[in-house]
Each structure stands twice: as C-alpha cells, then as structure tokens.
Amino acid sequence: MTDLPADDQTFLKDLVKTARRKHHHVKWTDRDGTERITVLDQIEVVRFAKLAHQLGISKPELLRQAAHIPVTKSAPAASAPTAPTASPVSA
User: What number is the average pLDDT over the span 10-21?
Assistant: First the structure.
C-alpha cells in the first residue's frame, strides 16, 4: 500500500474512517412508490432530525417531500475533464 500516491492513501484512510462511524438508516417511500433506505452519518442525522422536528413531520415523510424538490443541474467542477468543443469556422 505504501507504493500508492499520498492522495490515494488519504482517500483510502478516509473511507475506513467513514466505514467505522455509526450510520443511521431511514426507511421511506419515494414519490413513485419505491421503498428506499437512506443511510445518514451522525452529523447528517442531527441536522435531518432538526428539520423534521421544525416542520413537525416524521423523518420518512421529510424524505418523501424532499424527493419532490426539483433538481437543478450544476456546472461541471473545474477539475472535471470536459469534452473539447469545435471552434467556429470563419470565412
């Protein structure tokens, strides 16, 4: 493993740390009727529980309602490779 680049070693260490944390599973029904299970870490579950409490609804209901929030497409990250574009031909 020591022959891997430092950033790959860091990535793997972070994966192990994440796997060792306590995870919380929330069962809910998606808007199309599909049963789902969402896994939240401790930090996410605290914020998620606060939102559900603030709105006065259950955690599964919060996820069901959140599934109706429109998803906006974000611009590609600066580090993401982009396809080359053809330049206009001038005559």
Answer: 89
